[in-house]
Amino acid sequence: MAKGKKVTVYFCQSCGHESSKWMGQCPGCREWNTFVEESVEKKAAGKAKDSSSAKEELRTSKISEIDMQSKERMGTGFVELDRVLGGGVVPGSLVLVGGDPGIGKSTLLLQVCRSLAESRDVLYISGEESLQQIKMRAQRIGEFSDNLQLFCETGMERIEQVVERQKPQVVIIDSIQTMYSEEVGSAPGSVSQVRETTGRLLQIAKGMGITIFIVGHVTKEGVVAGPRVLEHMVDTVLYFEGDRHAAYRILRGVKNRFGSTNEIGVFEMREGGLAEVANPSEFMLNGKPKGASGSVVACSMEGTRPILAEIQALVCHTNFGIPRRTAAGTDLNRVNLLMAVLEKRAGMSLSSCDAYVNIAGGIRMNEPAIDLGIVMALASSFRDKAIDEKIICFGEVGLSGEVRAVNMAQQRVAEARKLGFDRCILPKVSISVLTDTKGIQIIGVGTIREAIGQIR
Hints:
Elements lengths: L4 E8 L5 E2 L15 E8 L9 H6 L21 H7 L8 E6 L5 H12 L5 E5 L4 H11 L6 E5 L3 H11 L3 E5 L16 H18 L2 E7 L11 H5 L2 E6 L6 E9 L7 E7 L2 E4 L3 H5 L10 E8 L2 E13 L7 E4 L3 H14 L7 E7 L11 H13 L7 E3 L2 E2 L5 E2 L4 H10 L4 E5 L13 E5 L2 H5 L4
Parallel strand pairs: 4-8, 4-9, 5-6, 5-7, 7-8, 13-17, 15-16, 17-20, 20-21
Antiparallel strand pairs: 1-2, 1-3, 9-10, 10-11, 11-12, 13-14, 14-16, 18-19
Helix pairs in contact: 9-10
């Protein structure tokens, strides 16, 4: 067969759009400066195959004829990970795990391998580490079963041969940016290589019923490196968030064909690997100061899980012409909006003040239910009056200064009562949906003025 001719093409790193010339804006996804140059081997067109035999094999299926074989989910050994996945791993699924370098992706998956290898055949394929490096990390985690097989390789053709020969039930690919196919002439990690190798892994997962976990590095913008089509091809996309120098990590699902994407898992990095945090609220409130102004506890929902976190605010007069506003763990634009509502509806002169808002514990919250907590913390710091440490609040704040209802109020109140809070400030309209208020005082407010009046 005659070899193909190498030509230079341009790929969009965001959506994978192909072009014969460089363009500033991608016509597919409308992103700017995303085209990269790659050399691709164009194969010569061959004769069309006789499709007479293929026509006899092609057959459509009626939806009533499809036999639904129940596939039980596999438990990973981590309750937090199973929650994010929707109850466990679905056999034959393709799961992408993304995160910053050093965040703990490989450690988490190696611990998952340890749990699954007790009853299943697991193949761990690494393109970044040697067998000795993986062994050193495994010794830190604990004892492993011989059902776990290790293989260091980056060539996709050889990986396919090993998988077809071993026929494992679970495969780990670490990482997708190091894998390459000899049929594609570009370098590993390029758009065409990532798209080609992921497509082959997808065929293996669906054709052989093998569960495959793919590790993906992220760019400085926080998205998985490579074409955005990579996230469309896989069944589940998980992001490992958090500061690599901090002890706690957040596992969040951004795509899941087999469950909800609203759940999160909380882990703590320890000497022996990652450990689950069963009660994130208790850890978030650990070390909360007593008698300090600008501090209040608010409740946010992550899926079906209420999480209590301390909201801190510091308001002081600025020494410059333009006040400085900073937000850590929440949206800065939302903080600016709430400060404008405080100035207009509550009569607080904040236009000449610097303001710093922080969600303690390193977690990020963007739910509107924490609006009331931010408002209370800002007002407490501005007046320099502390809020009772046994008070918790939640509620959405509108532009007119009204406190609007939020969902799942009963679950939030129950979590606050479990952690020892005796007073809860919430929207007045949400009181009617509460069914059990025993052991906690409910304070309903309709405006931010009423809520600020609780600061004494």
